[in-house]
Design goal:
Length: about 475
């Protein structure tokens, strides 16, 4: 039961709600300027390497809804978010991609401006990369067998393969890192942004949930939060929302009603393939991949390996018989995981119902056509570099071999109601725009149209999806918003 008696009042100059990519940048920026900053985070604080490569423990404690928020869809679809100090940066692979120029050009064209040109954004990317010390991290393709296969595919098919810029999950052998459970590292967002800010005076409250924004005229008067089953009121001159793709719009909807704005989440769909080779693919199984196919970026498609973990791999094979699972177990060293990632042209719809997040999604025909095209391309490529069987993210007819007619197979079985997919990249759910509209509540400088002291600088405010992993984009745009509003 929530206790409302004797509500405590807390005062600060700047309140940051959420500690992920955007919130962490705001902490460092404002504390470095000597500001009084309070950071609140709904989740708990977990030390680096606390889960020691255990994805199941990471899911249970550091992810929202124990790993996946269900999405109402014809497909099996789960949406993943961090819920801990560091947010999504704690659980992800730490990919630090600069926003592709085709995306920045799209934003500039939409807003009839040049503020998002690569020339203008480079200073912010460089600042983030310098703080993370990105250039010091190694990226050795020889340490990851799946990455070598991606390179081989690139050479055989004359397609673009690029090195992956990472912060925390480097390929150094003593790091013991896997996607979803941070390992031994010195370059994480916690270590480079939040911890240093705390030593300089950052005030921090974890396990503290922001419930409502309480407004008076054109200002947010205070934020109602729940901490230790007690309601508290935080009064701040300026409030920064950095809660993430579902929680930023949710707190707005809880505060002002579902009708305040229409919220849709742009997503990257991840569809995982398992492949069996006739060679040992798990020489260094805890190491992150280092190569990515970027040939199809113009079509919103990326292809890459994904960190291999036996338990996580088996969790995607629940539909197999016990006999099939035993055969895989006996030759587990020959298996690898890969991902086809698609920037979906359909959006997740988000609504608040009795304080619950309701997500719904419908994969459209354009996305299905793209997936069929690139499943044919990539499965062909895998067979050409030694794959003998491929396990597909399908509910039925999930296994193919070298003799399968891929075009006919995917036309028949790659269907909306036969897919199993996830997304861990949500964006644009409270996106910026040039004028106040039904689905636009922040301007292109991240400032609320309705409330003078309210700002947003997480993935929600991005104009569109980024195709690449959005962490560096969120951080660079956050830094730009801070420079524009708080310099």
């Amino acid at each position: 039961m929530i206790n409302k008696i004797g509500v405590e009042k807390i005062f600060c100059e700047y309140l940051i709600i959420g500690s992920g990519a955007g919130g962490s940048v705001a902490c460092k920026y404002l504390v470095d300027k000597g500001k009084d900053v309070l950071l609140i985070e709904e989740g708990d604080h977990y030390e680096i390497n606390q889960f020691n490569k255990s994805i199941s423990k990471s899911f249970l404690y550091a992810w929202r809804n124990s790993g996946m928020t269900p999405v109402i869809s014809k497909s099996n679809f789960g949406f993943g978010e961090g819920k801990c100090l560091g947010g999504g940066t704690y659980i992800n692979g730490g990919l630090i991609w600069r926003t592709p120029e085709i995306i920045l050009d799209r934003w500039n064209n939409e807003f009839n401006t040049d503020i998002f040109s690569m020339d203008n954004m480079t200073q912010y990317f460089e600042d983030i990369e310098s703080t993370i010390d990105l250039s010091s991290l190694k990226n050795n393709v020889e340490d990851n067998s799946e990455s070598k296969k991606i390179l081989e595919i690139g050479k055989k098919n004359n397609i673009k393969v690029v090195k992956v810029p990472r912060s925390i999950n480097s390929s150094e052998k003593d790091n013991e890192l896997i996607l979803g459970a941070a390992g031994k590292t010195t370059n994480s967002i916690l270590q480079k942004f939040i911890y240093p800010s705390k030593t300089k005076g950052l005030r921090l409250m974890t396990k503290c949930r922001a419930q409502k924004l309480i407004s008076e005229n054109d200002q947010i008067k205070y934020v109602e939060v729940i901490k230790d089953n007690l309601i508290k009121r935080i009064y701040s001159k300026k409030i920064i929302l950095a809660c993430g793709a579902t929680q930023t719009p949710m707190i707005i909807k809880r505060s002002f009603g579902n009708s305040f704005f229409k919220s849709e989440i742009n997503v990257h769909l991840n569809l995982r393939l398992g492949a069996r080779f006739n060679e040992n693919m798990q020489i260094n199984s805890s190491l992150m991949f280092s190569q990515q196919i970027q040939e199809y970026l113009h079509d919103g498609v990326l292809i890459m390996p994904t960190s291999f973990n036996k338990n996580n791999f088996f969790s995607s094979l629940a539909k197999l018989t016990n006999k099939e699972l035993m055969q895989i177990e006996q030759n587990i060293q020959n298996y690898s995981s890969f991902i086809i990632q698609l920037a979906s042209s359909s959006n997740i719809l988000l609504n608040n119902f009795r304080d619950n997040t309701i997500l719904s999604y419908n994969l459209n025909n354009n996305d299905i056509a793209k997936l069929r095209k690139y499943f044919v391309i990539f499965c062909n490529a895998l067979f050409n570099v030694g794959a003998e069987e491929i396990y597909l993210p399908f509910k039925k007819n999930y296994k193919i071999n070298k003799d399968t007619n891929l075009k006919i197979f995917f036309e028949k079985y790659l269907l909306n109601n036969n897919l199993e997919m996830v997304s861990v990249h949500g964006m644009s759910s409270a996106k910026m725009g040039q004028k106040k509209e039904k689905n636009i509540i922040f301007d292109i400088n991240g400032k609320s149209f309705d409330f003078k002291n309210l700002f947003c600088l997480d993935s929600s405010v991005l104009p569109t999806c980024t195709i690449e992993s959005p962490q560096a984009t969120i951080m660079a745009v956050a830094l730009k918003i801070l420079n524009d509003n708080f310099n």
